[in-house]
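Lab notebook, bench 4. Still working through the backlog of constructs that have no structural model yet. Next entry is a single chain of 735 residues. Request: give me the structure tokens for it.
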Amino acid sequence: MTTIAYDPAVQALIDRVAAYLPDDGVRQVEEAYAFAAKSHAGQKRLTGDPYIVHPLDAAMTVAGLQMDASAVAAALLHDVQEDCDVPNAELARLFGADVAKLVDGSTKLDKITWRAPDERPGDQSLQAESLRKMFIAMAEDPRVVIIKLADRLHNMRTLDAKPPEKRIRTAQETMEIYAPLANRFGIWQIKWELEDLSFRYLQPERYKEIAKLIQSKRTVRERYIAQVEKILNDELREHGIDAEVNGRAKHIYSIAQKADKYAAEHKGFEQIYDLLALRVIVSSVGDCYNALGVVHGLWHPIPGQFDDYIASPKESLYQSLHTTVMAIGLRPLEIQIRTTEMHQLAEYGVAAHWRYKEGGARDTRYEDRMSWLRQLLEWQRDISHAEEFVESVKADLFHDQVFVYTPKGEIKEMPAGSTPIDFAYRVHTDLGHKCVGGKVNGRLVSLNYQLQNGDVVEIVSTKSPRGPSRDWLNTNLGYIKTGHSREKIRQWFKKQERAENIERGRETIDKELRRLNLSLSEHGDEILRIFRYETLDDFLAAVGYGGVSTAHMAMRLAPLIHKDDELELPTITGPAPRTQSHSVQVFGTGDLLTQIARCCNPVPGDRIMGYVTRSRGVTIHRADCHNVLHEDETERLVDVDWGRTGDLYPVAVHVEAWDRVGLLRDLSTLVSDEKVNMMGVRTEHDDDRTTHVFLTLETTGVAQLSRVMAKMEAVRGVITVNRQIDGNRRSSGSA
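Model written out:
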């Protein structure tokens, strides 16, 4: 090959690919760089750097994963199609169809527009359709997403150049989509950096706090790790085990998560077990278990802190032994033990197995274990609505996994939080339809029991063709977790008689609307517009078979909630609503004190309006509050919007029930289990043995409120539950 003098950054890329690619592969990368540099000539990034710096950095990341020449070349060329108007046909002519396909796929992903969780809802179905395209592109060729991950990584490294609001938006996208994707693909080195960079912008103060805590003890920690590293190395050598032992850095976001978890358990930062960690790399699986014996002989293991991911690999193919021991000075120390091959897989994930060499054989174990990619393609064929598809993907693929067993010992991987019903549908659709109960480790459990690692699950089924329960589709009741189960249940109900679905749908929507003090007759046209159905029967049928999720219904209907002037509810004694000083954004002004109005008690999800008081800052009312609508001094009304904080908001709830012993206890226990604070309670009794319970609950918003009310309706003896818009009135009719 002819030697060409390159800039140091370019030479570093050439040296990296030359270490594992043949000469023709290196030549393809050199040609791709030359074309990209010429195409981007004169273009600058927001940082002021030449634009070529960005694709060069992305290509370095892809090459660091030892991807094939086509992937590295596509990383260099991934912006020329959109930013330089280079036709895809031209790329195919110059670099081949494989490179052109990867560039085209990466360009389509670049066009996806994400919506931050707290933004005002725009076209959610458009976003969902974009997500569907991304997931399908990923399923068809994982290299497309690896290039996109590399692209996003460099964008996150240079995020300071963007305006503050775009930094938050980009960081949120990264934390919600790209970091979980990197995790799902098992690419640890990209996952942890994306998480740390996102965390830095989403919670800057918390990021600095954790970084400072780590840095303050860095010298002591490094000295300690060096000491235990030497002791373990000597002990392994004595037992004839050839091993490489080194310290492992824990990244900041992971430590923050552990710190939050431990704080909830009243434990301190110093008790985080895997803040100090060693990694032991050996040559064989047998040596892994031998090394584990040496470790446990040297230091006492901490009960409940051992995981065998060799016998039960993670969904991403990750394999390793994890144990935590009390080492020198009785300090907890996590130790990971794995083979060299396992270590390569842990660092490179899917890239360690993906091979595109002409005539080369695919890794069959890899093909079997990455069946979730094929599942994506099956789902997108079965599910017609993009929003349902994305819901399934997020629920099933972006969550931690648990490993459970059939009575015959067959292992099943399920998303964390899965239930016996989810397990039944994973085994077979008909078993799910006929499921009437579940046994875990030989004991009968409730159908919403959450499966744990190592559980042996047996499904109790009926021979009669009864079919699934509609309650299973109610997310608030927790019967199913996976999108796979939800879609199979929806399909079953969709096949039922349309008239029955319409009837069931009317019952469901009427119940949901009553909770929010809305009516189908009054708001039917607006509801059809929100959910995008042409006729009421079509909408009710979709609700009936589960095509419209009740979990999101409250949030989507929140803008319609209005005050019914005929409602009367006695004042509930209890603590005064807390003052909100930073949870609401007041447009057109500086920082003003804000507080929630007691007359209408708005919560996040409601449309709101601010009223400038003479001495108490801005009072936040519902936009349709009687006091706002009849305010004479309209110049004192200001536009406001909900902010980003997790503050709580008081809401009045009216429960009508048959009077019985233990009713109030059951309601308060349910509220407590949902982590909702009950600020006040009052009861009234009628002559017909019915009772009225008036509660003031502190909630995070409409979604949480709807979930709590749905569970209250399931309490024995409860007739109706609804929200009271005016805390000084009581309903004169039924809820």
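Notes after review: The chain has six domains: 8-202, 211-349, 399-494, 498-560, 584-642, 649-724. Residues 113-127, 355-362, 562-582, 727-735 have pLDDT under 50 and may be disordered. Flag for follow-up if needed.
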